[in-house]
Design brief:
- The chain has twelve helices and 17 strands.
- A hairpin with a 4-residue loop joins strand 2 and strand 3.
- The two termini are 37 Å apart.
- Helices cover 38% and strands 19% of the residues.
- The chain is α/β, with parallel strands linked by helices.
- The strands form four sheets. The protein has a seven-stranded mixed beta sheet, with helices on both faces.
Length: 392
């Protein structure tokens, strides 16, 4: 008999009733060190006082009015994002998936508006994850996401990750845009080298192709910059943002240059909930903290501590771990043992982590995790690896 909740998740046998910073408290009162942060969503941990106050104060005033009217809270957050990024304009969504849909529409409408309606083809890369809508799964193409959901939305070309020759060969006079994650999350914590991002920007400029960055998982301070692409010194035309921007509240956004957004006029896109006062108030509170230079410097410092410790774990447990990947606090351990077994073994050590493709263990702690908590995380990972070794 089918359960009341549609059974589309392989859930862990855990349920949590409270969160405090980098810790989750289970139904039995036991405390778990959270290195998943809701899959990079809880950028400031659980129940951060500034976010609790922001959402409580706003909830007592106004939750939702729809986009039929001006929303001052939305305007404030949009202005903050424009001030801190390449973007000239922002559209708010409820999720990264919705941001992907608009990014696709915006890119195609740009070329249509420029009297090039034939330019509809979007180049994407193997291992990518852009959401679960029909457009987003067509852009990713992995079997587990697309099998049984055909016919897929046409207009996407999927290339091997890191194949420069294939990319150049795939660009034609029908190419609309290239969409890429500066750091793949679901694909196994694979960072695109800075020189490759620079080359991609040059190639798009040469061919009149729009460049779309998906920073849903790697953005909002996670790499030690507000957005991951900043390390390369280049900017996209369109960018998808979600997860960390709401600190746990459902919120997403599409950021764009004025040129890239030229086709998006009144009536061309919309959202009932997107950018409501409640969500944007929380988003502004997150931005005020995460965009601060001192906060971002702390992320980089903590990353160095965590990475050094992870390198030590790889050396100490060569049967379990193979290498460290990632940047900032979007880190991964390439595993020799099963990453799923390691995640499960971590439960016995009251440690939460997230699996990814390519047999990688994802480590996505809150950006404000304490240095003592990083040391504790390393100790628990060490004990977890010892448990796995005992089972080999």
């Amino acid at each position: 008999m089918i359960p009341a909740v549609l059974p589309t998740y392989n859930r862990a046998p855990l349920a949590f009733v409270k969160g405090e910073g980098s810790w989750l408290i289970a139904e039995d009162g036991s405390r778990y060190l959270d290195l998943g942060a809701g899959i990079a969503v809880n950028a400031l941990g659980h129940a951060h006082p500034a976010l609790v106050k922001a959402i409580s104060d706003q909830a007592a005033k106004l939750w939702h009015v729809s986009n039929l009217y001006r929303i001052p809270e939305q305007e404030k957050l949009a202005e903050m994002l424009v001030d801190k990024t390449f973007a000239d304009t922002v559209f708010f969504t409820n999720s990264g998936t919705e941001a992907a849909e608009l990014a696709i529409k915006m890119a195609r409408k740009y070329h249509y508006t420029n009297n090039q309606p034939e330019r509809i083809q979007i180049i994407a890369f193997e291992g990518a994850f852009h959401g679960r809508s029909t457009g987003a799964i067509a852009a990713a193409g992995s079997e587990k996401m697309v099998k049984g959901f055909g016919p897929l939305m046409p207009g996407f070309t999927l290339l091997p990750w890191g194949d420069h020759d294939a990319l150049r060969a795939a660009l034609t006079n029908q190419t609309c845009a290239v969409i890429i994650e500066p750091v793949q999350g679901e694909g196994g914590i694979r960072a695109v080298p800075d020189q490759c991002l620079k080359g991609l920007r040059d190639l798009c400029d040469e061919t009149g192709t729009l460049l779309i960055f998906d920073e849903v998982q790697c953005g909002m301070g996670r790499t030690g910059k507000l957005f991951a692409h900043e390390w390369s010194g280049i900017t996209p035309d369109i960018m998808m943002v979600a997860k960390g921007i709401g600190g746990g509240f459902p919120l997403g956004a599409v950021l764009a240059t004025e040129a890239a957004a030229k086709g998006m006029v009144a009536g061309s896109h919309g959202s009932t909930y997107g950018g409501n006062p409640l969500g944007c108030t929380v988003g502004a509170a997150v931005m005020e903290i995460v965009s601060d230079d001192a906060f971002l410097d702390a992320v980089s410092r903590k990353s160095a501590q965590f990475r050094q410790g992870l390198e030590g774990l790889v050396a100490a447990h060569p049967q379990v771990f193979e290498a460290v990947r990632g940047q900032g606090l979007i880190l991964g351990l390439k595993c020799k043992a099963s990453n799923l077994d390691i995640v499960k073994a971590g439960y016995a050590e009251h440690l939460l982590s997230v699996p990814a493709a390519d047999n990688v263990l994802r480590l996505l702690p809150a950006l404000n995790i304490e240095e003592t908590e990083i040391s504790e995380a390393l100790a628990r990972l060490d004990r977890t690896a010892t448990r796995i070794e005992a089972s080999l």
